[in-house]
Write a sequence for this structure.
């Protein structure tokens, strides 16, 4: 099969490698589409501690090509449209037992990140991949692969929103209008809240308003703290989702949060430098600062349902679709600061 192998930062090639063989409890998936994530961009730039060579891609979807001998053939069949839960959770550690499989303590030790004598990675940038049958989610027959490829990013957002414990009528501030920020804008509205976006690019502010945001703030030419309080009767936002990686903006997110409110640190911070926070204020006004990382099994299921039932359409956030052989051009597009989700296709999407 063909795969996109990142030999070292910035150096990739399309290589022929062996097609993986499914074990008894696995299926072989033919990949049809895969999204390029910010983490794939960081891998490409070398802004990570993972081993190379590496095959990236964790936002993939496809069809079942073959069943392992022990896979339940009444539940799964060749040709089904599927996605895979991409966290290789051990199911035995303290966190897995608590239902927090997305922070499994063994996952960072897997070949996803380090394989000194081989190829590391999620390996979705290839024509085929194997998956445990128990990690599969089946989409309806009429689902489109270019929508299914948004399952993992939307699942991350659903995990973030669930951790915020939104209440009907809350004022929600989303900081950052990239793909993940816009998915927060779209998904949070399904919880009956008023959404406000903070984003410096005018085109993204306009898109947020088209997607249902009540207001959009330009943090370059407006005072974010003053403007959010003007919009919320002086309180600040009940919930703030920080979807940016900039340390200074993380501090802004806390300051924009109302007394009794919650700020979700959705994005990893790059560079990961300390962020000054007025903990006296956090204490006195009962604010909560919460992290959100990786999708859970439950958020994956909800993502499949939202996309599969066409309750949420990710189509407005699809920037471009490239043939996998045009990976260099696709990565250049994904690295631009003004683009949304870039997808790779492996064959036709029909």
């Amino acid at each position: 099969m063909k795969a996109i192998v990142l030999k070292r930062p910035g150096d990739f090639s399309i290589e022929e490698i062996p097609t993986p063989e499914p074990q008894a409890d696995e299926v072989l998936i033919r990949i049809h589409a895969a999204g390029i994530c910010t983490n794939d961009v960081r891998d490409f730039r070398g802004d990570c501690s993972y081993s190379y060579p590496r095959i990236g891609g964790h936002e993939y979807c496809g069809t079942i090509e073959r069943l392992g001998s022990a896979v339940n053939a009444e539940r799964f069949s060749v040709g089904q449209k599927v996605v895979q839960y991409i966290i290789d959770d051990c199911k035995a550690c303290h966190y897995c037992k608590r239902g927090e499989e997305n922070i499994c303590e063994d996952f960072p030790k897997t070949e996803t990140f380090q394989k000194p004598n081989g190829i590391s990675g999620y390996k979705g940038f290839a024509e085929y991949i194997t998956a445990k049958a128990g990690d599969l989610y089946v989409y309806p027959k009429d689902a489109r692969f270019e929508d299914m490829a948004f399952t993992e990013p939307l699942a991350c957002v659903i995990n973030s929103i669930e951790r915020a414990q939104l209440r009907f009528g809350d004022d929600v501030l989303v900081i950052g209008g990239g793909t993940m920020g816009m998915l927060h804008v779209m998904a949070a509205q399904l919880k009956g809240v008023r959404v406000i976006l903070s984003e410096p690019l005018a085109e993204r502010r306009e898109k947020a308003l088209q997607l249902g945001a009540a207001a959009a703030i330009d943090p370059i030419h407006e005072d974010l703290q003053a403007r959010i309080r003007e919009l919320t009767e002086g309180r600040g936002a009940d919930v703030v989702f920080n979807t940016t990686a900039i340390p200074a903006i993380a501090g802004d997110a806390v300051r924009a949060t109302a007394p009794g409110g919650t700020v979700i640190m959705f994005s990893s911070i790059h560079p990961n430098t300390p962020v000054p926070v007025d903990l006296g204020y956090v204490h006195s006004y009962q604010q909560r600062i919460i992290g959100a990382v990786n999708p859970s099994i439950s958020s994956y299921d909800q993502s499949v349902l939202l996309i599969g039932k066409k309750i949420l359409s990710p189509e407005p956030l699809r920037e471009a679709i490239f043939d996998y052989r045009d990976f260099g051009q696709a990565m250049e597009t994904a690295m631009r600061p003004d683009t949304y989700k870039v997808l790779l296709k492996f064959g036709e999407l029909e």
Remarks:
- The mean pLDDT is 97.
- The domain at 2-86+122-150+314-345 is CATH 3.90.180.10 (Quinone Oxidoreductase; Chain A, domain 1).
- The first strand starts at residue 2 and ends at 8.
